[in-house]
């Protein structure tokens, strides 16, 4: 079986790095609780343009935290299935090298040939896609799992929701797939 | 309909740039006729390691020639179909920015969201793939068209061969698809 896995907010904690960077560069102490469901620039739109520049930098990705349990669960899945990391880096094209380095360093067991950088996930031909973006899941032709992130918490969607990697593991265990 | 199109040797004349660069940097005057079916480094393997470094550079792609008729034919196809540029840049990861710039400048009518960088084209979910690589066509799930390149000229394969973009145009015209 073939499983495509999104990167930002699914295996890499983009929100945490984004807020940490915002606080550091603009000398603030904003918490995710204050931000609510979404990104810090939705609360502080006057910083949006600056943050777009800041995110579009290879270094922005280098010390991004790995989502809890993702490495262990994906390593388990990879023993039985083909794993592809499918990430939209076209908006932040300078981030591609940072993302490649991050993946090589944190998920060394995934073949670099299985990295996919694309802007439209309708192109992806796999059985599963684990993604935090409704937009991506809607155009995907296989089975989509919605990975919880701040920006998608406030609504009920027609996808199976997984709140963390333990739930992903339980989902595939229940199906007898790991 | 959705059509995936490879980049090197299909819309971008990689071989020509490769040989031109080799001749310039190593002060030679090798012709493609002398090289035969393949790349210059197959004839001069002692330069292989150096050429791998040289190709893995954003600038290597910037002045690559556009394949004759490709722009006009793809622009025609794009009026009726979704076009994706699918290129394997994982081996030459530094080349990604050069490739993005080249595509934006030479094929501005293709949405950047339709660029796909991947190492394994089995992931691609489109109706067609136009590619010079047998390895890519073999793993592709849709209909493959083999685009002629020096390295694939010497064998007969089980794919429909297109020798240039006029033949691609004729193929889709005959099917009533443009």
From TrEMBL, chains A, B:
Q: Which organism is it from?
A: Clostridium sartagoforme
SUPFAM superfamilies for the chain: HAD-like
Enumerate the Gene Ontology biological process terms: pyrimidine deoxyribonucleotide catabolic process
A Pfam short name: NT5C
This one is known as 5'-3'-deoxyribonucleotidase
Record family assignment: Belongs to the 5'(3')-deoxyribonucleotidase family.
Source organism, top-level taxon:
Bacteria
The Gene Ontology terms for molecular function here are: 5'-nucleotidase activity
Active-site residues, record numbering mapped to chain? 6 (nucleophile), 8 (proton donor)
């Amino acid at each position: 079986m073939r499983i495509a896995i999104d990167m930002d907010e699914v295996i890499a904690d983009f929100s945490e790095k984004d807020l940490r960077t915002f606080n550091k560069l603009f000398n603030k102490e904003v918490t995710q609780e204050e931000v609510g469901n979404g990104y810090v620039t939705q609360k502080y739109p006057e910083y949006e343009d600056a943050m777009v520049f800041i995110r579009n930098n290879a270094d922005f990705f280098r010390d991004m935290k790995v989502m809890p349990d993702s490495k262990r669960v994906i390593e388990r899945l990879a023993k039985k299935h083909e794993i592809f990391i499918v990430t939209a880096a076209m908006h932040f094209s300078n981030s591609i090298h940072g993302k490649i380095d991050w993946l090589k360093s944190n998920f060394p067991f995934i073949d670099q040939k299985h990295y996919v950088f694309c802007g439209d996930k309708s192109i992806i031909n796999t059985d599963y896609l684990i993604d935090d973006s409704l937009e991506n899941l809607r155009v995907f032709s296989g089975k989509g799992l919605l990975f919880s992130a701040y920006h998608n918490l406030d609504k009920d969607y027609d996808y199976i929701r997984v709140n963390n990697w333990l739930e992903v593991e339980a989902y595939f265990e229940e199906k007898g797939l790991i």
